[in-house]
Write a structure and sequence with these properties.
The chain is of the alpha+beta class. 20% of the residues lie in helices and 46% in strands. The radius of gyration is 20 Å and the shape is elongated.
């Protein structure tokens, strides 16, 4: 009888250890995708601290990282968009937006959140897990 309980305890401990290891692996491989009007704009590690700004006029969308222009994309929707995203201490939140309801500013993403931030002006920020094959991260 004691052997049976001992075996059960060992199995529970093994399952708990494997689950904890898998959870840590997922957290360490987390990145976020920034999508605007169904187009992937950028994929950034959740562990990079930065201010990410999306600004536009009727013709172009401008992408800034820490106030430096890093990309310019043609604005196919001809709609003015402005979002400021803060990534700090593994937490992502929208701090400024030109959308109507500003509901996106009350949402946040951290390594335990599975729900994306969705803004009515076409911005979607979602957490994704990088797939890892051996030592290669895709």
């Amino acid at each position: 009888m004691k052997q049976k309980y001992f075996l059960i305890i060992i199995c529970i401990f093994a399952i708990f250890t494997l689950h904890k290891h898998e959870s840590e692996r997922r957290k360490n491989n987390a990145s976020m995708q920034i999508i605007l009007n169904d187009i992937l704009i950028d994929e950034i590690s959740l562990y990079e601290n930065m201010e990410y700004t999306i600004d536009s006029d009727a013709n172009f969308i401008y992408i800034y990282k820490n106030k430096y222009l890093v990309n310019t994309i043609k604005n196919n929707k001809n709609k003015v968009i402005y979002n400021k995203i803060l990534i700090q201490n593994e937490v992502v939140k929208v701090t400024e937006s030109n959308c109507k309801g500003k509901d996106c500013m009350s949402m946040k993403i951290d390594k335990n959140t599975i729900l994306p931030i969705i803004c009515t002006n076409g911005l979607v920020i979602k957490l994704v897990e990088n797939k890892q094959y051996g030592d290669i991260i895709v």
